[in-house]
């Protein structure tokens, strides 16, 4: 699986030659009403020079809900709706935040929704989006428009074909989160 | 005598010019705020200062909401609105975006161990370290996190928790240099205008309103919807409404008077003679009011429009009587009646000045000044302008008199009279004891419902669900203020948990007291001592890294002081809740979110009563209570006025005093009954109107009694009644509730008095 991903990435990089317009991207990407799959996440902490790996499954209902269920090494579920952000542990809700009254929660959930469901218009309100498209493969580099987003990520790279396959979040102080998706099922 | 009169006339002219000139030099605002009519609250000075501060904060801002179907359109419309508003730079400051660089800067990071969210604090207090550790882990593995993941400096993610639980008062987020609403169906942006002048300032209204209107119109053509919320809109609408209503009433009254006088006298001279004293009276009334008060109120002006009805009496009598007598003889003949009329009216209106109601005091000053000026003009100036030739009895007088003579006289039917008086007394008693009273604040609401709806729409979109009631905490210094607030919150939290209260907002949620911050640090220290080793060990951190983390806690224990907090952008939404008094004391407002059931209100009140330095403040309730209190006072004052004037007139009319007093009393009681029947209750403004009915009715009775049934007096009385009715008839049609409640009394009241008065005349010709 990882090999496949890596080879795909290598392949992608070599093929991305020209900057494409968002319209092209929109033409390639598809955002079904529901999508589920599994993910592998590696969070690299520069300070400790170590990577924390986690795996799990995710599920989304477009514009309604995203569930991000980490299964290893801990059981933790994050549920996002456009209005709220809640955390569950071992099936029990441990906190719930309201995006209406907290701007930080609002921006975070906005961006995560947009990334997961390829809402390019929303992403453009927060980032400068540079895209490259080649042979039904694409890559988008998001650079934050203002410092507000900077505390969330300095740069985000999205890659995929019909669906989003990889996310790389470049965070402050050299930290970086790499997420790979697989077994995607609309 | 003649010379003295002339001297007096010249003296009056000089005084008139001095008053008007003085008034011209004074800058005065035209006030439509109904709140200005209300007395200063009989409360602790701290409470009223806080109320004033809160009211001013609302008063001096305009919230503008721009929305459209598509985001791009909404954004373009917002940019266009900003461009148009830029022309108002001298009058307003515009806020279109948050200070983005600072909005989420990391300046709270240093305080991550001393400022804890309620949830974290609760977990640490109950030593539920397991949950805290679990949460930290889920943060660590979460794909999205606020703040940096830093296992050395903040292994338990306390800072990210702090960021995620910070609340902002209104539901907006900064987006591309604009403020976007987070909880609105259509893409919507917010603009905030801060007025440099108060919203009642007429030049401010005149400059800003056309721009706001043109923005609304221009953007509507682009498919964008613009909504406004702010006192400025209500103030401007009120001023416009008042202007239009007063001019309809004024024009209606003057047209009516002109028409009737031309019909009755068939000359143009009397028209001038009737209106001139009224005009002088109004000018002096406004001038004196301007000199005595800083703002002239809409209600005063409206009442003043009604005053025309009283002032016109004086000149009407003189002019009517002049048809039969020389000018000098007329004054001599009418002097006693005119003087009694003036004294009774001035007593009645002047009494209003004794109430602690600023609005009523203004009406008292306005009325007394206007009446005295009109009266002086009639006595001193009018005779000079009058022809010295007698004319025949006016045809109108003859017809009216003939009709009057056919009416029955009450003193012919003593039993019937006694029965009617008994009825009147029981109706009065019934009204006083049983009629429902209406003291709701809605009476004072002068804005049209469309404007109120727009206001509500904006406030809802902003998520401004703040109750008008609030709790207030006061203390000598910030630390004690915050500590008391925290103590109060311990009593409020159970109400929130039991859902009796939707929520609240208080400063100590953002800035804990230093005492609380030190407690929090101790709690975190305990967490580290018990859990750090085990937790970081699980994550595979080395011993050196663990000791670095524990060292980082020891190194980072600063407390956030109030001064530092006030300088941080994070305090911006909270600053309006903090008031520093001139006395050096501090107060803070604990805002209540959402509506509360009455049981909760009672609980909050009892919490406030049992907690020192905490007050429960509900301005809406206070205003209604105040209206009720002054309604009761006004009832008393009406009774006293009737009593005092009856005694005064008794010295002149002896037992015939009932002939003067009965018509205004009967008219007032019946008018009030009619108003109660139509509106289902009566209110303060009905009673103020009864005061005017009393004044005009009394004049009528006095003149009829003085003139011993002269046909010309009856003509004058009838003419002044008709002119007053023309003026007040239009008041009853007013859209402004206060004016309507005024008109609905005066209209039937005066008609009835005019109909009842002839019944009171003596059948015998008496020598007085």
Automatic annotation (TrEMBL), chain A:
InterPro entries the UniProt entry points to: LolA/LolB/LppX, OM_lipoprot_carrier_LolA-like
Keywords associated with the record: Lipoprotein, Protein transport, Signal, Transport
The name this protein goes by in its record: Outer membrane lipoprotein carrier protein LolA
Assembly information from the UniProt record: Monomer.
Species in which this protein is naturally found: Marinomonas transparens
Gene Ontology biological process terms, A to Z: protein transport
Annotated signal sequence range: 1-19
Pfam family name, one: LolA
Domain of life: Bacteria
From TrEMBL, chain B:
Domain of life of the native organism: Bacteria
GO CC annotation terms, alphabetical: plasma membrane
Transmembrane segments: 272-290, 296-314, 334-357, 363-384, 413-435, 634-653, 660-678, 684-702, 714-733, 739-760
Keyword line: Membrane, Transmembrane, Transmembrane helix
Protein name: MMPL family protein
């Amino acid at each position: 699986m990882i090999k496949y991903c890596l080879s795909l990435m290598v392949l992608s990089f070599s093929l991305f030659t020209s900057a494409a317009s968002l319209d092209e991207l929109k033409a390639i990407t598809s955002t079904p009403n529901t999508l589920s799959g599994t993910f592998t996440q590696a969070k690299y902490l520069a300070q400790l020079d170590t990577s924390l790996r986690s795996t799990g499954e995710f599920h989304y209902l477009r514009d309604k809900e995203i569930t991000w269920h980490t299964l290893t090494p801990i059981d933790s579920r994050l549920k996002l709706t456009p209005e709220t952000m809640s955390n569950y542990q071992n099936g029990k809700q441990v906190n719930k935040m309201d995006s209406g009254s907290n701007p930080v929660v609002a921006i975070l959930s906005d961006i995560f929704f947009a990334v997961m469901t390829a809402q390019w218009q929303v992403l453009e309100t927060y980032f400068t989006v540079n895209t490259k498209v080649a042979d039904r493969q694409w890559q988008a580099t998001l650079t934050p428009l203002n410092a507000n987003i900077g505390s969330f990520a300095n740069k985000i790279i999205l890659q995929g074909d019909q669906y989003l396959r990889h996310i790389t979040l470049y965070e402050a102080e050299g930290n970086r989160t790499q997420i790979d998706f697989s077994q995607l099922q609309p | 005598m003649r010379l003295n009169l002339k001297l007096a006339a010249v003296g009056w002219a000089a005084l008139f010019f001095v008053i008007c000139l003085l008034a011209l030099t004074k800058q005065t605002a035209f006030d439509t705020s109904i709140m200005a009519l209300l007395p200063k609250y009989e409360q602790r000075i701290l409470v009223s200062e806080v109320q004033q501060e809160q009211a001013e904060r609302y008063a001096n801002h305009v919230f503008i909401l721009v929305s459209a179907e598509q985001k791009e359109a909404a954004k373009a419309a917002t940019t266009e609105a900003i461009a148009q508003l830029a022309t108002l730079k001298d009058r307003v400051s515009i806020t279109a975006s948050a200070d983005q660089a600072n909005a989420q800067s990391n300046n709270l990071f240093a305080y991550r161990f001393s400022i804890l969210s309620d949830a974290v604090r609760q977990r640490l207090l109950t030593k539920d370290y397991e949950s805290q550790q679990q949460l930290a882990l889920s943060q660590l593995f979460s794909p999205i996190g606020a703040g940096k993941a830093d296992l050395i400096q903040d292994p338990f993610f306390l800072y990210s928790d702090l960021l995620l639980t910070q609340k902002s008062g209104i539901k907006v987020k900064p987006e591309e240099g604009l403020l976007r609403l987070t909880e609105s169906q259509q893409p919507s942006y917010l603009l905030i205008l801060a007025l440099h002048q108060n919203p009642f300032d007429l030049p401010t209204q005149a400059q800003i309103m056309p721009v706001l209107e043109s923005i609304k119109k221009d953007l509507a053509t682009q498919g964008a919807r613009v909504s406004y919320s702010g006192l400025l809109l209500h103030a401007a609408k009120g001023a416009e409404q008042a202007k239009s209503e007063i001019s309809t009433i004024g024009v209606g009254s003057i047209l009516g008077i002109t028409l009737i006088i031309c019909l009755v006298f068939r000359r143009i001279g009397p028209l001038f003679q009737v209106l001139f004293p009224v005009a002088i009276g109004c000018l002096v009334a406004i001038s004196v009011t301007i000199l005595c008060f800083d703002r002239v109120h809409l209600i005063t002006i409206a009442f003043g429009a009604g005053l025309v009805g009283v002032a016109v009496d004086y000149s009407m009598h003189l002019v009517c009587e002049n048809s039969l007598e020389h000018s000098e003889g007329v004054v001599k003949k009418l002097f006693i009646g005119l003087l009694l009329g003036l004294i009774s009216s001035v007593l009645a209106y002047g009494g209003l000045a004794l109430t602690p109601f600023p609005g009523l005091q203004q009406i008292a000053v306005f009325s007394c000044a206007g009446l005295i000026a009109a009266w002086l003009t009639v006595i001193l100036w009018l005779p000079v302008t009058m022809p010295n030739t007698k004319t025949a009895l006016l045809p109108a007088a003859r017809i009216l008199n003939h009709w009057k003579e056919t009416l029955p006289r009450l003193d012919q039917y003593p039993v019937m009279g006694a029965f009617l008086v008994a009825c009147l007394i029981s109706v009065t008693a019934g009204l006083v004891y049983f009629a429902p009273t209406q003291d709701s604040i809605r009476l004072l609401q002068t804005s049209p419902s469309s404007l109120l709806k727009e206001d509500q729409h904006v406030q809802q979109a902003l998520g401004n669900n703040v109750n008008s009631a609030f709790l207030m905490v006061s203390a000598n210094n910030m630390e004690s203020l915050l500590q008391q607030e925290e103590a109060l919150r311990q009593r409020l939290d159970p109400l929130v948990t039991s859902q009796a209260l939707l929520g609240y907002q208080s400063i100590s949620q953002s800035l804990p007291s230093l005492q609380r911050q030190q407690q929090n640090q101790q709690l975190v220290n305990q967490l580290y001592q018990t859990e750090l080793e085990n937790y970081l060990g699980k994550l595979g951190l080395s011993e050196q890294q663990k000791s670095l983390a524990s060292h980082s806690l020891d190194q980072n224990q600063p407390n956030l002081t109030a001064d530092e907090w006030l300088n941080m952008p994070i305090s911006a939404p909270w600053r309006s809740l903090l008031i520093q008094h001139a006395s050096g004391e501090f107060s803070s407002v604990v805002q209540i979110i959402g509506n509360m059931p009455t049981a909760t209100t009672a609980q909050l009140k009892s919490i406030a009563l049992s907690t020192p330095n905490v007050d429960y403040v509900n301005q809406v309730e206070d205003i209604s209570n105040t209206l009720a209190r002054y309604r009761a006072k006004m009832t008393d004052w009406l009774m006293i006025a009737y009593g005092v004037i009856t005694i005064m007139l008794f010295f002149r009319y002896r037992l015939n005093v009932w002939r003067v007093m009965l018509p205004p009393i009967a008219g007032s009681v019946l008018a009030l009954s009619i108003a109660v029947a139509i509106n289902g209750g009566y209110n303060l403004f009905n009673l103020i109107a009864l005061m005017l009915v009393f004044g005009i009715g009394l004049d009528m009775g006095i003149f009829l009694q003085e003139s011993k049934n002269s046909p010309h007096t009856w003509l004058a009385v009838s003419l002044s009644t008709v002119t007053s009715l023309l003026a007040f008839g239009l008041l009853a049609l007013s859209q402004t509730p206060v004016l309507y409640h005024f008109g609905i009394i005066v209209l039937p009241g005066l008609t009835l008095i005019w109909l009842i008065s002839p019944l009171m005349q003596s059948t015998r010709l008496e020598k007085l």
